[in-house]
UniProtKB/TrEMBL annotation:
Name of the protein in its database record: Long-chain-fatty-acid--CoA ligase
InterPro entries assigned to the protein according to its UniProt record, in alphabetical order: AMP-binding_CS, AMP-dep_synth/lig_dom, ANL_N_sf
Organism of origin: Nicator chloris
A Gene Ontology cellular-component term: plasma membrane
Name of the gene this protein is made from: Slc27a3_0
Coiled coil residues, start to end: none
Keyword Ligase: yes
Reactions catalysed according to its record: a very long-chain fatty acid + ATP + CoA = a very long-chain fatty acyl-CoA + AMP + diphosphate; tetracosanoate + ATP + CoA = tetracosanoyl-CoA + AMP + diphosphate
Keywords: Ligase, Lipid metabolism
Oxidoreductase keyword on record: no
């Protein structure tokens, strides 16, 4: 869906030696790799470890786009080691394989992809992916999907608190909300209105090497 935005840049990307992969059948211009054809032709047998195992866990695994807090969004290098460490994120905040995690964050950001999706893989939890966050649909989604854990950024909780009150707002199975940037006043309002949901506030940076957890609330 986003290839049209990249297509005008193809000549300069080729000059810089940047490969462009697209998930879709195509057709695409020369030099663009259509991943769907390769996936369809790929064997289901796992290759030997020396083919896919990184030579150095500190080598680049992927690039994550930061939020742009200090300027325009920019790509931050994420190592294989840091990606593997994200497997333990939900375990650190008290979730388990029995949980159903609601995720409506963008997957090009570290919170959505590595902490969210990879974190669910790490504990074997069910991940409910929402294409776009909707404050008006949130509690209905939680009830219909059996959601027990919600990963937020601070503004998402504010959107929920600012919604008009509706019947059944406390009739849900949500027990844990985890994320970053929740203001104290919104924190209090969220719990007063929606029930005794445990909140674990965390803070880290895509390109940083320290993460903080507020376990005490």
């Amino acid at each position: 869906d986003l290839f049209g935005s990249v297509e005008p840049l193809l000549p300069s990307l080729r000059e810089d030696g940047v490969a462009v992969w697209v998930l879709g059948a195509g057709p695409y211009p020369p030099g663009v790799v259509a991943l769907q054809e390769l996936l369809d032709a790929a064997s289901e047998e796992l290759q030997p470890e020396d083919v896919w195992e990184p030579e150095d866990m500190n080598d680049t695994c992927l690039y994550i786009f930061t939020s742009g807090t200090t300027g325009l969004p920019k790509a931050a290098r994420v190592s294989h080691l840091k990606s593997v460490m994200c497997l333990s994120f939900y375990e650190l905040v008290g979730a388990s394989s029995r949980d159903v995690v609601y995720l409506a964050l963008p997957l090009y950001h570290m919170a959505g992809s590595l902490l969210g999706v990879v974190g669910c893989l790490g504990i074997g939890a069910t991940c409910v992916l929402k294409e776009k966050f909707s404050a008006s649909q949130f509690w209905d989604d939680c009830r219909s999907e059996g959601v027990t854990v919600f990963q937020y950024i601070g503004e998402l909780c504010r959107y929920l608190v600012n919604q008009p009150q509706r019947p059944g707002e406390r009739q849900h199975g949500l027990r844990l909300a985890v994320g970053s940037g929740l203001r104290p006043d919104v924190w209090r309002s969220f719990q007063q209105r929606f029930g005794p949901v445990r909140i674990v506030e965390t803070y880290g940076m895509s390109e940083g090497n320290v993460t903080l957890f507020n376990y005490t609330g």
